[in-house]
Design goal:
mainly alpha
Amino acid sequence: MKILAALACIIIAARVTLVQGVTAGIVLSLLLLPVWIVAIWRMRGGRATVVVGGLAIISGLVLTDFFAADHPTNDSMMQQNTFALVGLLCGIGVVVWARTILGTAPTALAYGVGLSASVVLHGVDSDNIWKFDLSVPATVIVLALCMLSRKLWLEVLALLLLGVVSALNDSRSAGSMLLVAAALVVWQAVGARLSKSSSTVRTLAVFGFVAVIGYSALQAFILEGWFGRAAAVRSEAQIAQSGSLILGGRPELGASTELIAANPFGLGSGTIANGIDLTIAKTGMARLNYDPNNGYVERYMFGNGYEVHSMLGDLWIRFGLFGAALLVVLLVIVALGTAGQVAQRRASGLTIFLTIQVFWDSLFAPFFSTSIATLILGVALVMVPRPDRTAEAPARTDFVSFQR
């Protein structure tokens, strides 16, 4: 059974496409449905994930039919988007099940091997191999091995080195996340010497504080030229353009906010943008001092559906309110699960990094293969079983009070 669980993680992460939108991972998930549906159903947030995810799939189909009156539609695109969401839900279920058999670290390691296999199968990006292909698989594998070693100094060193490598390869966001994760691992270790545990709320507050400080520090280092003059010049231009490094680097935020404001219930998983949608999106991007009339908007963002470079935006537009609600459910699971582990001084560097990565991707990364793979692992590693209330019931009924 352990071999099957490890192979399942590898196949889910490898994303081997069989036919349009259908991967080997989805087929395997359907075969393993009787075992993983029970495993995820017993987890906190598992039922909400399955139910809301199912409603999101239906919502995408219904919205496509509704907007067919004044928008072009594409059945092939609808199939791909639908199976992408199915793959997310099934992937979470399978990896949760595998974790109950293998344990957290071996599950993460097997998943990292699958991510590496995906790079081999799909080829590499010649422009920036580390940023677009190797960073996530390498980070998952290295941090999973550190988790197996149970050596704090090795985990912190790995996070710092991975952060520096990412920053040197123009992956500023990943570098920030890894450095913040290293800081939180150290804070967790120091806190363990002072007290055995902390509250979840306090831990979430520390998360936010360290994230802001870490990002600001890395931005200062980049602007000072620590990671190369080219990165400094590019960052300065983005800040000058929109007043913020984030907004300057992600003008698609303007398009997503305007489109969602104009279509709060979404547009559908098979709907293609029309001229009105393009005008709305370009207006939002222009407000960030970005020139949208360069072909990027027509070809990449809206050439085949809607791609606003944000998981929240993509899910909301393609699957409506239920798509957005699904992501919110998953983010709550990740936030509370990781904060609970940190509060108990037992969160790994991998878990902390994945949490930061998932929240970043929810706003600044498209809903596609890499972000889906990260979200699957991030959710699956922090899900905890629901309390067994049936076991607690006899204890309550057997209690007899003699107080008058």
